[in-house]
Amino acid sequence: MSTEFTKKVKFLIKCIPPGKVATYGQIATHAGNPRASRQVAWILHSASKKDDLPWHRVINSKGKISLPHGGGYEEQVSLLEREGVKFTKSGMINLKMFLWDPFE
Predict the structure, then answer these.
(1) pLDDT tens across 25-45, in order?
(2) E strand or H helix at 79, and its extent?
(3) pTM score, two decimals?
């Protein structure tokens, strides 16, 4: 049984367009609980395959991928690069350029 928050999180993640990213905190805030970034991460972990969520479009607030090297990092980079998202040499994404604005 999904909570209303979980339903909103899944809906928002599905709305992130290709070539854009959102942060865990941004999703949590728009779903109604700005302090639930970790809950967003857990929802992604537990429901991405089952609900066909574009998990790779969710990153941390610093503009970096949170997954470890060898634990999904490379796959996430590859998926984002295929959508046109660019990374700096230090592995950061320019949030001014690629951050999704749900109100646009």
Answers:
(1) 999 999 999 999 999 999 999
(2) helix 73-82
(3) 0.94
